[in-house]
Write a structure and sequence with these properties.
The complex is a heterodimer of chains A (371) and B (186). Chain A has 371 residues and is an alpha/beta fold. Chain A contains 13 helices and 15 strands. The chains are: A alpha/beta (371), B alpha/beta (186).
Chain lengths: 371, 186
């Protein structure tokens, strides 16, 4: 039963509310603005806070502060704003503060084309901030997944004390599809749990597993937070025996838990010699092409990546071993294809690229299947 | 072998920013999904201008899954301005139908079309050119049956603000009426 026809950006906003987001700071920018508009209206109704900041640097800083203060927090932006957020995304990774950053991609570089979509920020989400840092990036292919992956983004963010980026683009952000929103109370939501008393709390302990619990400020827990390398209590350190264990732990946080973090959708065909690996809106054109190709007798498998960072290395490598050719459609000049090439070998990969604001069409993919 | 996408209907609505083409697409998609219980996806493209420029709204309707969300080759095109006609009257099926707002278009497409004075009829029927998008929806549904008349009427009324429901209903009915009397496509 269809409940409503909803935009991707609206679904993200509902997903945030369902996940328990109670703080949003942002600066409006096409094609992400509907998220700010909707949360400005809805957050006060549930006791939350919406702030329009002076820019995206401040927006990112504000959501980090709110999260340390105990609220699940989010911002939403697009290309130029996402560039401004990079420094503080690194700060959130370094200080292990959960937060969700939505990037509704538009055509870049620079101001680019405000109302044209793209998938040009794939590498920026991974390496946009300096230094080796852990990051999780999720990418929805539909309005319903925009809702589901936003909740997932908050849950992973809290579970692993890390910033999570929800990477969508202007087409799905502005696209309307039928969605049946679930009962919010029935959803599985991850909340912070702190068992230590303030006297015994060690905010950056390397001895409590990969993810030490996060205590919110204002609850009697006193500790230091800095973007400098820090010791287990959060104070700056230059000691190698404190830097190395920290680095090891924050990367283990994600790479030891890939089963929980990496999500893919498989549509495999026995004996297929061709595979398509796609993500985001390009997966929609790819699925259309897949059905056309199969109706013409071609055997083709498809892997849709919902988690794009950490890159689903094992799944891509396994599929690559089964086929002769891997087609990677993207609305950029070839970004995720670099990772696919790393896993399956450059010679197997056929890139299908379009970076002018228009979608990769099913025919463009079909032409490669038929070639 | 199964042929996919046989019941996929692709509709493109284009005009100037401010003529309500994106809203018309939303209403059409709501008629298809909420009131006709089909699947539909609506997408939109517009320029950076607040008003003016060319604006495009696309609706794909199917009883099955809709993977590619945009129009590949349009079955139906509604055109409300010359600039939008120049920019978006492309990639049409050979047996497609274009519906042109007569007094706004002077350069005609090469695929089959009908013409009706949509904006003038909106003004005459409701006193406002604002309702031209709803007249256009009436003509579209009347001619193509892309969604049922009951569904489009419910969807229009659900979207119309209080105090404008009767005006919008009249605009829609005028569109249905025009469709009855339009000549065969040229």
């Amino acid at each position: 039963m269809v409940v409503s026809l909803m935009q991707g950006n609206e679904a993200i906003s509902w997903g945030a509310l369902a996940a328990g987001c109670r703080f949003f700071a942002g600066y409006p920018i096409t094609p992400s603005t509907e998220i700010a508009e909707m949360l400005a209206r809805e957050l006060p109704k549930v006791g939350g806070t919406f702030i329009q900041m002076e820019d995206e640097i401040a927006s990112m800083a504000a959501i980090i502060g709110a999260s340390i203060g105990g609220l699940k927090s989010m911002t939403a932006t697009s290309g130029p704003g996402f560039s401004l957020m990079q420094e503080n995304i690194g700060y959130a990774a370094m200080t292990e503060v959960p937060c969700v950053v939505v990037n509704v991609q538009r055509l870049g570089p620079s101001t680019g084309l405000a109302t044209a979509a793209a998938q040009g920020d794939v590498m920026q989400t991974r390496w946009g901030t300096h230094g080796d840092h852990p990051i999780i990036v999720l990418s929805p292919t539909s309005v319903t997944q925009s809702f589901e992956l936003t909740i997932r983004a908050f849950n992973l963010s809290e579970r692993y004390r890390t910033p999570v980026i929800l990477l969508t683009e202007g087409i799905i952000g502005h696209m309307r599809e039928p969605i049946d929103l679930p009962d919010f109370d029935a959803l599985e939501i991850v909340e912070r749990v702190i068992t230590d008393t303030p006297d015994h709390y060690v905010p950056f302990s390397n001895d409590l597993g990969d993810v030490p619990p996060l205590a919110s400020f204002g609850q009697g827990y006193r500790y230091h937070i800095t973007g400098l390398f820090h010791d287990p209590m959060g104070f700056p350190t230059q000691r190698l025996d404190e830097i190395d264990p920290w680095l090891e732990r924050v990367h283990h946080k994600l790479d030891r838990h890939l089963d929980e973090i990496v999500m893919v959708e498989e549509d495999l065909q026995d004996d297929a010699r061709i595979a398509i690996i796609a993500y985001g809106v390009s997966a929609r054109g790819a699925r259309h092409a897949l059905k056309l190709a199969r109706s013409q007798g071609y055997k083709v498998s498809m892997l849709t990546l919902l988690t794009i960072w950490p890159f689903p290395e094992a799944q891509v490598e396994e599929l690559g071993d089964q086929v002769d050719r891997v087609i990677v459609p993207e609305m950029n000049l070839g970004q995720l294809a670099l990772e696919v090439e790393r896993m399956v070998g450059r010679k197997k990969v056929a890139r299908v690229n379009r970076a002018n604001g228009e979608m990769v069409t099913p025919q463009m993919i079909l032409d490669v299947i038929e070639s | 072998m199964n042929i996919p996408f046989v019941d996929r209907i692709e509709i493109r609505l284009v005009g100037k920013g401010g003529q309500g083409m994106i809203l018309a697409g939303m209403i059409l998609a709501e008629a298809a999904t909420i009131y006709d219980f089909k699947n539909a996806v609506q997408t939109q493209t517009y320029g950076p201008e607040a008003r003016g420029g060319a604006s495009k709204s696309e609706v794909v309707i199917s009883s099955g899954e809709i993977d590619y969300p945009e129009v590949i080759n349009a079955d139906v095109l509604v055109v409300m301005s010359q600039e939008a006609c120049d920019k978006y009257a492309l990639s049409m099926k050979a047996d497609s139908l274009s519906i042109l707002d007569d007094e706004n278009i002077d350069c005609l497409p090469i695929t089959p079309f009908v013409r009706a004075p949509i904006t003038r009829l909106a003004l005459e029927t409701t006193g406002k050119t604002l309702a031209a998008n709803i007249v256009a929806l009436g003509v579209l549904v009347g001619l193509t049956g892309a969604v049922s008349r009951q569904a489009i009427e419910k969807a229009v009324l659900a979207r119309a603000p209080e105090g404008t429901k009767e005006m919008n209903r009249q605009a829609l009915l005028k569109g249905f009426e025009v469709a009855e009397h339009l000549n065969e496509p040229i």
